[in-house]
Structure prediction request, 340 residues.
Amino acid sequence: MELTFKPELLYFKRPFKIAHGVRLSTPIVLTQLEHQGVLGFGEASMPPYLGETHESVLFFLNKAAVLLSTHQDPFCIEAILKEIDDIAPDNTAAKASVDIALHDLVGKLLNKPCWQIFNGDKNNTPYTTYTLGIDEPEVIKEKVAEGENYKILKVKLNGENDKTIISTIRNITDKAIAIDVNQGWKDKYHALEMIEWLSDKNVMFIEQPLPKSNLDDAAWLFERSPLLLFADESIQRYSDMDMIKDCFHGINIKLMKCTGMHEAFKMITRARELNLKVLMGCMSETSCAVSAAAQLSPLVDYADLDGPLLIKNNLFDGIEFINGKVTLNELPGIGVVAKS
Ligand code: MG
Prediction:
């Protein structure tokens, strides 16, 4: 039977904000892709540092909608996403929203979860980290208590009160810690000194210790660091992998940086060839984009997918964390149901 492909991208035309407690919010755009009455869901999340806005995403998606309407067969994933990627450079979150919707649609048409399509073992998922922001010691203590069901804490440092923050945590728990410096250590000698100080404190790895473009110093640190170092801001897409392969032990893949599940899968495959570890991360996202990322989690080493735990107005039910472990369901596609 002939397939007729009628994609329809729907989105909130006015900024829709995810609320993070009282202080922060991140705009997102939701997409839907329809074929033969089946709907695939997608999401773009736009943290300010990627440079995408509501306007840029909607502008891009209007072009994507025209292009998608020329396709008959949603299973031509590679060809469709290549054309989407060629619409314009950058726009990685907008591209990811199309990629996620397409994977959700195809999974539903096949009646298979995406983790199965990617040959993942549902039981072989990592534990997610639970994020603690940079805060005063009293607030950090409260956050550690709130995260009691999670086995790994993600601690953000910025070069200011780093030792106080770590000591505060270590006075109350000996749980494993993953550290994200977000480019916050400006000097390689200071970075090495901090890493050595952290090396006997049950730290699993350090993410992005130095500014993203400073790869010479990253390579220097990589040769000396007693702890695993992960690139986050230093790597966006597959094409960046060769550039950073001798500067880090691993990479943080996020769908919003790399244009979605299709390219993320290619990056995981390439990381294995390069002997790089893989962390699957997320932005501030609803369970839509995070459940999409989680479909690939059986293939990676670590997960930082607690995005939905940090927002108040989640629009989807999706993957769960049971005692901190990423727990996939049997639903087809990316495993989400829109909340009514
Ligand atoms: Mg990071």
Observations:
- Residues 127 and 314 are 21 Å apart (CA to CA).
- The chain has a mean pLDDT of 92.
- The pocket of magnesium ion is lined by residues 180, 182, 207-208, 232, 252 (CB under 6 Å).
- The longest strand covers residues 24-35.
